[in-house]
Amino acid sequence: MPTVAVNIVAQGRRKRRLLDIRASQAKVIADVRPYADRLPHWLYYRLFDREYFALAIDR
Predict the structure, then answer these.
(1) Residues 40, 47: contact at Cβ < 8 Å?
(2) Measured between alpha carbons, how far is 27 from 51 in angstroms, rounded to an integer?
(3) Chain segment 9-32, per-residue pLDDT in tens
(4) Nearest-angstrom CA–CA distance, 12 and 24
(5) Phi/psi-derived region of residue 4, left when phi > 0, alpha when psi is between -120 and 50, beta in every other case
(6) Helix %, strand %, coil % for the chain, to 5?
(7) What is the DSSP letter of 48?
(8) Backbone angles phi, psi at 37, to 5 degrees
């Protein structure tokens, strides 16, 4: 279960460029970024503006 949400709007353009570089992984990336290829980056990352992570706590 995610424990942290990070707002990624400011990094939308950079994230889009980096993910689009990996042509061999286009199908996998499309599965985790629905409709990203149909919307401009500024709109896509305003609609999907957070990434979620589960932090591991070492006890």
Answers:
(1) no
(2) 20
(3) 999 899 888 888 877 888 888 898
(4) 21
(5) beta
(6) 50, 15, 35
(7) S
(8) -80, -5
